[in-house]
Amino acid sequence: MSSNDTTTTPDTTPPGTPPGAPTEGSAALSGLLRVLGAIERAGNKLPHPFWLFAILSALLAVVSWGLAAADVSADNPADGKSVVVRSLISVDGVRSMITDAITNYATFPPLGTILVVMLGVAVADKSGMLTAMLRAGVSRVPARWMTFALAFTAMVAHIASDAAYVVLVPLGGLAFRAVGRSPILGIVVAFVGVSAGYDASPLITPMDAVLSGLTTAAAHTVDPGYTVTPLSNYFFSIASSVVLASVITLVTEKVLARQVAALPPDTEKTDTGGTAAGGDAGADAVALDLRPEERRGLRRSGLVFLLFLAAIVVAMIPTGSPLRGEGGSIVESPVLSGIAVVLGVLFALLGTVYGRAAGTVRGSRDIPDFMAQGMREMAPILVLFFAISQFLAYFKWTGVGQVLAIRGADLLKDLGVTGPVAFLGIVLVCTVINLAMTSGSAMWALVSPVFVPMLMFLDVPPEATQAIYRIADSCTNAITPMSAYFVMALGFLQRYRRSAGIGTLASLTLPLSVAMLVTWTLLFYAWWALGIPLGPGAPVR
Questions:
Q1: In 124-280, beta strands by DSSP E
Q2: b/e string for 94-117 if b means 16 or more Cβ within 10 A?
Q3: Predicted confidence (pLDDT) at residue 13 exceeds the cutoff of 60
Q4: 290 in helix, strand or coil?
Q5: CA of 303: how far to CAs of 136, 309, 350, in Å?
Q6: In DSSP terms, which residues pair with 83 in a beta bridge?
Q7: Percentage of the chain surpassing pLDDT 70?
Q8: How far apart are CA 57 and CA 393, in angstroms?
């Protein structure tokens, strides 16, 4: 795919285009292209997230020195103690940076959690179970249900992390062609479902482990004993996945279907030998079908999944069960507090059972090999975590984060700003940042040390702040060219429409992103107003 393919868009309206129909050369689209181009140019100037946090650490050292010299402090309303800013550019600060570096990294809350979960997910992935599960989610679906089925499958696909893009986006095009619809719509629905709905899923995903760990670290600046589990937003996430899949379906059928139908004819030949509406649907249908051994593997792993859940439920029935918490508590049970271990074991078990049935796991040696492959793919995240863990440790040690949170909360109180009003500010700020910084974990690591404690001082639980962040972190993923997967989706789109450019894809994803942002935000406010728990033991207010 050449660079010209992703930047040039026709600026003429071919004869026969319906009056008023959205075209690739319309004035509105030209304006959108200029905005996206500016975002891309600005984003390209940002350093790699590793160096970004290294630079932020250096800036923090200078800021802490200046604030400490000015004797800046704040009274912590939680315990009444005065929080005084300490300078990193001091004897104690330099000693802390050197002697605590390993401890900062080894005790970084998301590190152990994500590694344990990914050991199991790697087995499920490398055995082929996750890919087969996603294909099964869209195969043999009636045409009238295809949009919702594909959108909801995209929500489920978040369990596969970034691999969901690689598997489901091209699969979406094939699925829509198989039922006689435009593959362009299928690609857009799959891409938006995975990207703009990235933090919503009916399953617990690796991102839940990362976000909860970062939220826990941020909450410790106010309450050192506070713990946010990967299940903390589970109820809200389940509801969000259904609502977002419904929004994608409604907007696709009412808006995008007409928009795609009104696109000017594509005179260039596609790789499949036809236009978006052409091709052999039968061949694509075969590509979607699962092989007998894959179906057998899914059936057996599904049965094991049910038995696993049943075994846990039965084991937790006795009030004196070791799987219950103190006083027979279920919310504070080892199952929920140690959910990372439970999930790791579950995915490893399901992947093994599937692999044995499908023939992808031939011996016990394959299991640790799959885990090792998964760990190799985690290497970039582990490198980034080192820089993030040091920055957050410095932020906490200097007291800058606490002072900012206390002063920020006091300012909001003086202005009469309540939690619900602050939520909207967080959504707007993080949504804009997300256009240039597409790494959800990096952005949350950057803003959570301020937002989480600040809202805790306004009596807003960390789980609620994390939930509102999920919305801002997701919806604009589908329109920013800074995302590598935006470019990847464009490449798949060009298989069916050679003249497609950034503007083509952005014009199709923008209505969905805006609709999802508005609806998802309103869902959270309704959740807040009704006081529904966000997850097990996680009140919304």
A1: none
A2: eebbeeeeeebbeebbbbebbbbb
A3: no
A4: coil
A5: 16, 10, 9
A6: 74
A7: 85
A8: 10
* Higher-confidence position of 240 and 422: 240
For the CA atoms of 346, 347, 350, 356, what is the dihedral angle to 10 degrees? -130
User: Which of 459, 338, 471, 452 minimizes the C-alpha distance to 404?
Assistant: 452
75 forms bridges with which residues in the sheet?
82
Q: What are phi and psi of 46, to 5 degrees?
A: -70, 140
**Residue listed under structure tokens 């909207």:** 424
For 73, the token pair is 């402090």
Q: What are phi and psi of 139, to 5 degrees?
A: -80, 145
- Cα distances from 60 to residues 65, 326, 433, in angstroms, run 8, 41, 20
Question: For position 1, what pLDDT does the model report?
Answer: 38
Contacts of 113 (CB under 8 A, 6+ apart): 209, 210, 212, 213, 230, 340
Query: Could you give the angle at which helices 379-398 and 109-126 cross, rounded to 10 degrees?
Result: 160
365: part of which helix (H) or strand (E)?
none
Give the whole-number percent of the chain exceeding pLDDT 90.
26
How many angstroms separate the Cα of 513 from the Cα of each of 102, 362, 466? 41, 43, 20
**pLDDT, average across residues 317-323:** 84
Three-state DSSP class for 493?
Answer: helix
Q: What is the mean pLDDT of residues 533-540?
A: 89
**Span 174-185, pLDDT tens digits:** 888 878 888 899
Q: Tell me which amino acid residue 312 is.
A: I
Three-state SS at 28: helix
> Is the pLDDT score of 33 beyond 60?
no
pLDDT in tens, 445-461: 878 888 888 888 888 89
CA distances from 427 to 361, 430, 472, 475, 521 (A): 44, 5, 5, 10, 8
89 is written with which tokens? 């550019």
At 348-377, the pLDDT tens digits run 999 999 999 999 999 889 999 999 998 888
Q: Tell me the backbone φ, ψ of residue 302, rounded to 5 degrees.
A: -65, -40
φ, ψ of residue 83 to 5 degrees: the values are -100, 115
The structure tokens listed for 167 are 């598997």
pLDDT at position 275 is 39
Rounded Cα gap, residues 358 and 343, in angstroms: 22
Q: What proportions of the chain, in percent to the nearest 5, are helix, strand and coil?
A: 70, 0, 30
The backbone torsions φ and ψ at residue 289, rounded to the nearest 5 degrees and listed phi first, read -65, 145
Comparing C-alpha atoms, which of 392, 388, 468, 475 is closest to residue 432?
Answer: 475
- Helix (H, G, I), strand (E, B), or coil: what is residue 342? helix
